[in-house]
Predict the structure.
Amino acid sequence: MISALTIPLPLASTAAELRSGQRDLLSYINDTCDRIDELEPHIQALLPESERRARLLAEATSLQQRFPDPEQRPPLYGVLLGVKDIFRADGFPTQAGSQLPAELFAGPEASCVSKLRDSGALVLGKTVSTEFASDEPGPTRNPHHLAHTPGGSSSGSAAAVASGFCSLALGTQTMGSVIRPAAFCGVVGFKPTYGRIATDGLIFYSPSVDTIGLFTQDVAGMATVAPLLCADWQPVSAPTRSPVLAVPEGPYLSQTEPEALANFWRQVSQLEKGGYTVRRVPAFGTIESIKEQSRHLTSAEMALGHAHWFATYASLYRPRTVEKIRGGQQISLEQLTRARAGREALRNELEGLLQQANADLWICPAAIGPAPEGLTSTGATVMNLPWSYAGLPALSLPAGRAANSLPLGLQLVAPTMADEQLLAWASLMAETLKPA
């Protein structure tokens, strides 16, 4: 009988216990490695590493020697970090979920990884990504039900956090690759404003849209780590009022499956009973055009970014990635230019609608439903795509379960550069939505 595939491992309390010494660092490493040894063959969230335990124990011992005084320990002292396999990280090969030679992607470590290491985090290892963060899935399974996808493209990062292998993981979002897997795996996912976290050391899918995101089990943990990575972070005081919420009614919302939509309206009702003002705002009347513009942008930029590699190694790419690149090659410069310009127009439209409604945040389902059965797809991106295309900050909160017991998520979206306020309000909303 295997252990429970998910366990509580909130970042904020785990980091505090490790810093204070209340949780012994070496015991924590050994316990985690024991858990990985037992469960990873079933979940497959991590890239294989033969001497993971020995490496982590050596790094943890070195960290202890550097910071013997708990008062001097950095904020993420001893916290285990999962790194999606499209980031360069010193000591680990990068293959971006592909079969291409790892040396093609060698280079300096991503600065976001370096900053988290400098803050005391220990790299647990690379987490599974879909091929080049696109549509071809890896082997990772959803720890809530192994027959279902964990979502993608940040599949391994979401599953590793949900499984308690690490309390923090890095991911990326081009369309829905942080928010959707967070929802499917029942954890918190945060995609900041486009460009707020430096993207050096990243194997790009679409540079105009790619945004580095984070996974934790708790909003408090997310609020701990976001200031370490997001440029020009400005601390905000605890909210003195609840945010006014806007629901984007219309064709966008109608994409949601009936069960998930019913759950969403239950969450809305719970928020209203908790004192929140919720306004229905017609939006996304041109959702099909928005999806087309996003596809033009991302596939064209993928084709451009892979031009050299694809010319030499086309036979090593998997079919759906080949299809994406070949489709991107057919996008004209005029179409690409129009798609890039559309991002700002959509952002201005969404922020204008929010202002007209005197609202603070958009709220909507984080995915069209719970994680689909099977591992051949990572699920639909349509509930995340327009917000990603516009570059707005978004966060997924665990919010109920489907009839099959799989998690559902609530997506919160804020105006550009309102990341600080988004996290502060998300903390309030998480308390309101907490099951009785």
Observations:
- Residues 333-356 form the longest helix (24 residues).
- The chain has a mean pLDDT of 97.
- The beta strands are 80-84, 122-127, 168-173, 188-191, 211-216, 245-249, 278-282, 361-365, 394-401, 407-413.
- The first strand starts at residue 80 and ends at 84.
